[in-house]
Design goal:
Layout: H1 32-55, H2 59-62, E1 75-76, E2 88-89, E3 95-98, H3 101-108, H4 110-116, E4 132-135, E5 150-152, H5 166-171, H6 182-189, E6 195-197, E7 202-204, E8 209-211, H7 217-225, E9 227-228, E10 231-232, H8 248-279, H9 281-304, H10 306-331, H11 351-356, H12 364-390, H13 392-411, H14 420-441, E11 445-448, E12 465-468, H15 471-509, H16 518-561, H17 567-600, H18 604-617, H19 619-652, H20 664-703, H21 713-719, H22 722-747
Antiparallel strand pairs: 1-2, 3-4, 5-6, 7-8, 9-10, 11-12
Length: 748
Amino acid sequence: MGFFSKKEVDPDADPHGGDDFIEGGKRRCTDVLFLLAFIAFWVGMLACGGYGFTNGDPALLIMGTDYEGVLCDEKGTGVAGTGSGNVIDNSGLKTRYWANFLEVAAVARSAAVAATTPSFASSSYTLADAKSMCVSTCPQPSETAGQVTWFCDYPESNSYAAQLTKEAWKTKNGDVYSDLTDAEKVTSLQLKGPCYPVLIPSVNTYFSCNYYGNFSQSSFDAFTALSVSGTTGTNFLTDGTYSSFASLDGLVESINSQVTDYIAGPMERFQRYIDDFIVAKNVLGMAAGACLVLSLAWLVILRYFTSLFCWGTVIVVNLGSIAVTCYLALYSGLIGDDQISGIVDSTGLDSTELNASSWVDPASENEEVLKACTYVMAVFTVIFFIFTLLMVRRLKVAIACIKVSISAFSTVPSLIVFPLVPCVGMMLLFLYWVFAGVYLMSCGDQKIQTCVHPFESSESHGCGVETEWSRELQYMLLYHFFGFLWTTQFFIAVSYLVVAYVFAKFYWSGADKMGMTPLLTSMKRMPFYHSGSAAFGSFLIAVMQFVRVCMRVVMTGMKKIDRNGKVFAVVGYVIECCLWCCQKIIEFINRNAYIMIVIDGNSFCWSAFQALKLMIANVMSVAAINIVGDLLLFLAKLSISIGTAFLAFVMLNGDDYKEEISSPVLICSVIAIFAYSVAAVFMGIVEMGIDTTLLCYCRDMEKHNGTPQYAPEVLQKALGIAGEVQKAEEERKAAKAAAKAAKADNSE
């Protein structure tokens, strides 16, 4: 149970004893304290989620509030100080509409507005500060010449004298201008409310009315022609108050640009891409099937052509390095007379006089660079050739380990579908984490922002509402985020243990002693006995990931302080690189520690120490397997990804889809990423099998004086040690029989 605890075992015990392959035949629970800590942490996670579900309202993050501080499609009084303080009933009004389009334009042309309103320069005026209301359908300009469509404040706001019900207001879609008094009509003509003219058409885009069309000149002419008590509609094109919008073309361009970029642009593109995926659904189905078939095909290729691929890769690299070295030597002048030269036209050139003179070829500098490159490449070629000669036996071990891991698939074919189990678990975790996180984020206090309105006419309403998180809520969000990292790594760690158990069982017990359902046995034993170790190892990686995220946030803030400086950027890259390396080292140690936990059944720290000791003692074999194995698996994943994407591209360029989709690039890119992920799942199992087989082999060598007694037949044949293993097994049996006979004689 301790950090470095080691189970006491009988050194003469048979690893095949009991119902397990570990020494002594009985496992015990490891690192229980960390399992209890993980459970306690999840109790806190559930408490945070419960708090969010009880007190949060995700609509705050999605729809925002109107000028009264009330959410669309909800009923309430809003944030204190925002509006009238009365109960506003927005039930059934799901869409947000910005009534004064000039305020929207001011967001896009903030620099121009600041030139005429100095106090506006220091404010952070956004669309959240512009006056918005909730509607059922987006208002449109009048299609009748000489008439104006209006949109007015809610009747609950008491901003006009008319006593209207909300239902009457809804029936008229907010156009109650005719019910106003003359004084209220005058302020509306001055663009101060409570009613505003609708001069630009809009469309409902993701529950926001997005300005999209041309400016309605007929409605504008009708608006400026209206006269009440000697006041006509404000012509903002000529009024000095709105000098920033003297050009109608510039006004429409500003509004379209702002609303499109801020609200509708990404959504329109997203919708178009979604439509493409819907049209190409058959191609997506084909791609899913193709990547599975290609993954299985690669497993077959690796099973029967492992030696060819491994040796072919080594030979190609050696020949390639020799060819590059010779090529550089030729063009640098070290071999032959075909070196590079700066002479373009040699007509009439006397080479004898040229060589006898002090003339210097301008290409000589490049020639020296090529010579240096030749020397470097030659050194690399020699080193790699010597490395190949020294690694011949280790390469045999690498090839044999790959063959053993692939052979285990034929014995336990259910390994192919096992990745679906942790994938489903992590998918459910992700859904819970997202929903609980959204509710937690919406638990913040709603407060009015500080802003300076661009026009006097817009000062009749307050600024927008923002969500502020208390320090306690910020800690809860950080806690929730770290819990996601830890739990995700926990799922991965348990998956490693389960897979490693199957491959270790295949190594130590052989295919004939695997049992009926080795995978199910592993899925029961590993979580039961070693969840604590999985919690410990996953905690280490989660901490490193959390530190990387925090450091990235800090460096992003530092870059904003010094936008033109290069120091923070360089320091950030260095720190990020160091943290990334540390994380990869921890992940490497963890993977091998999990394998040793499976083999020996000891605690995490002791198993990590034993794994490192074995790898250091067999560093050449480990290096060979990592180089060859990683290269082969990467080529497999890359070829599956490219092959699947190419098949999809060919289909999308056919007559059935060519005219129906906007572009095949995004679809093929998504398919390539998906296919690579699927291939990574399959090859990840193979990679775990290779690592497990290697450590089992090293452990077997260590226990039996350099002769692995329990190596599978495939490994024995590949290494040519079948005879030695058989001889060692006979000697072991003879010694055991002699010991038994001696014990019997002594008892007599």
